[in-house]
Amino acid sequence: MIEGRKVVVVLPAYNAERTLERTVRELSRDIVDDIILVDDASRDNTAALGRSLGLHTLVHRQNLGYGGNQKTCYAEALARGADIVVMLHPDYQYDPRLVPSMAWLIASDVYDVVLGSRIIGNGALRGGMPRYKYVSNRMLTMVQNTLLAEKLSEYHTGYRAFSRKVLETLPLEANSNDFVFDNQMLGQIFYFGFRVGEVSCPTRYQAESSSINFSRSCTYGLGVLQTSLLYRLARMRLATPPIYDPRSARLLQHDRLVSRLLPEEGLPSPSPSEP
Fold first, then answer.
1. N or C: which terminus of the chain has fewer CB atoms within 10 Å of its end residue's CB?
2. Taking 70 as the threshold, does the pLDDT of residue 195 lie above it?
């Protein structure tokens, strides 16, 4: 807890058994009040390991995709009383020791959103990011900075911290369930006027780290361009895309998430006041 604010780390997981324990071990329990693992119908023992580590573990009935996993993560974090939510991949690609710094920047009301950037300080290349991914990252970021009139070092990091207000405001249910969810969310964050900061984050690209193949990367890149173009059209009031429409659906309440979860996991969460 920081400044009386509950800090919750969410781990959107798929086949993360080999890296989950290392990731959790490096989280500061002096700061982190709750850790939520959402297993997206993994084929390994991710969920069982999460429970053995004492994590609040939910399991999807079927694979919903990376974006669908995050929707469950954030809805559950809000239901459990989170004031600050940090999304961290459990594949040990990003450094868990940065959670306190990212959370403090939100708790101190400096930013509403904090991103762990792999690009600042050349951490991505030193950490083993494939060069074609690095070049694609830089090119897409340049285009997005132009279309969104912003100046981020990258739009594609999977390490992010949010205030509760951000997650309650954005129409996240309108977003894709696929990888482009992250990018759509950033577009929404800027569109709705939230403050965004970045911290330098060293990364590790290992055999166990998750990564999408070249074909999926191309699909993601096209989705990023569409997200940016829709943002510009919405700003110019030439269109009202659902992802930028404040009337679109926000996160589901916990009791409406039950259908997504395995029966033994689809139980109401305890209220934040309960032990």
1. C
2. yes
